Amino acid sequence: MRQHSGIGVLDKAVGVLWAAATEPCGLAELCQRTGLPRATAHRLAVGLEVHGLLHRDADGRWRPGPALTELAARSGDPLLEAASAVLPRLRDLTGESVQLYRRDGMQRICVAASEPASGLRDTVPVGTRLSMGAGSGAKVLAAWADPATQRAVLTDATFTERTLLEVRRRGWAQSVAERESGVASVSAPVRNLEGEVVAAVSVSGPVDRIGRRPGARWAANLLSAAEALQQRL
User: In what residue span(s) does the HTH iclR-type domain sit (predicted)?
Assistant: First the structure.
C-alpha cells in the first residue's frame, strides 16, 4: 500500500503516476483507478506529462514518461552505469548510432543511447517506446522472453518463431527496413549475473551505409560490447 505524505496535491499526483504505470490508460480509466474527479485527474496528468513523468501515446493513453528513465539512471542503475562506459566505445568503433533496450510488456524502451557527432543518424531518444514486433532489438528481447510473451509478440510481428530460433542459435539478430524504411540494425542480448537476458544492445543506421547484412559487419563487435556490459554488472 502506498504511503500518504499529508500533502494532498502531491499524493494525488503520485496516485495518477502509479495508475498510469500499472497499465497505460485514458482519462476515464485514470479517474476510475484513482477515484479523482475528471478535471483533477486531467490537470495532474497533463502536469506530469509536461515534466516528462508521463507520456501520451498515439491512442491518447498515458504511460510512464522518459524522465523516469533519466531519474533511474541517476539513481545508480548498474546497467545504465555500465552503458555509459560501453556504448560510447561501440559508437566510436562503428561510427553509427548505438542503443540499449529493455522490454516493458509488449513494448521495448530505449534506456540508453549514444549518437555520432555528425552524419546521417538513426536517432532514438532515451525513453522512446517501440514495438516488440519489428527490428533486431525486438527479436533479441523476444527470443529470450517467456513462452506466453513470445506467442503474444508473434501474433503481429514481422518475424516468425523460426526467426527467434535462429536468433537464439547464433546469439544475435539483424533487421533491414523492418522498424523504419531505410534503416538497418543488428542487436545482441545482455545478460545479468544469473544468465537472464535483461536488455538488447543495438547498432543502427542507414541501409545505404550499413548494408543489407549488418550482422556480418557488426555482430562480433556487438557481442563484445554485450560481454563488456555483463562484466560491469
Answer: 7-66
User: What is the pLDDT confidence band of residue 70, given thresholds at 50, 70 and 90?
Assistant: low
Task: Indicate the residue among 37, 64, 91 that finishes a domain.
Answer: 64
Beta 183-191 vs 97-104: how paired, if at all? Answer: unpaired
Task: Tell whether 134 and 221 lie within a shared domain.
Answer: yes
- Is residue 65 within 8 Å of residue 54, measured between CB atoms? yes
Q: How confident is the model at residue 5 (pLDDT cuts 50, 70, 90)?
A: confident
Give the CA-trace dihedral at 131, 96, 67, 24, to 10 degrees.
0
pLDDT at 149: 92
Question: Residue 196 domain-assigned?
Answer: yes
Domain span holding position 16 = 8-64
- Residue 95 has a CB neighbour count (10 Å cut-off) of 15
